[in-house]
Design goal:
- By secondary structure, the protein is an alpha+beta fold.
- The chain has one domain: Alpha-Beta Complex (Aspartate Aminotransferase, domain 1), CATH 3.90.1150.
- It is 41% helix and 25% strand.
- A five-stranded antiparallel β-sheet has the order 1-2-3-4-5.
- Strand 1 and strand 2 form a beta hairpin.
- It is globular, with a radius of gyration of 13 Å.
């Protein structure tokens, strides 16, 4: 079992379901990424650069694309609780794949050029 699946397996219910959905979706968006656990969270890296982290919590998934994508796309994140480097996606709502993809694409653009 991969490190990320081992991480996900420690959760239950909606948290586990959404973590697994996030993981599978990120595998599709970032098919060439290296998967690992970093800072005790699942992480996807490209060209040895961390692109995205995510984590499970009781009422939300934490999504960590770093500060630049969040700042650039904050108008798209108004619905979600967010800070300089994190976005919280509530467990009782579908994951917003269009926004997730935009955040990742922005991150890839400024990180990998």
């Amino acid at each position: 079992m991969s490190e990320i699946l081992t991480y996900i397996d420690q959760f239950e219910g909606k948290t586990k379901t959404q973590l697994l959905e996030m993981y599978r979706g990120l595998q599709q968006i970032l098919p060439d990424a290296v998967e690992c656990i970093s800072y005790k969270m699942p992480c996807f890296k490209e060209q040895n650069e961390a692109i995205i982290y995510f984590a499970g919590y009781k009422n939300h998934l934490g999504f960590y694309p770093t500060s630049k994508p969040i700042e650039a796309l904050k108008h798209r994140l108004a619905k979600y609780k967010h800070s300089k480097g994190a976005v919280q996606f509530p467990l009782d709502e579908p994951l917003p794949w269009a926004i997730i993809r935009e955040l990742i694409e922005y991150r890839l653009t400024f990180t990998l050029g």
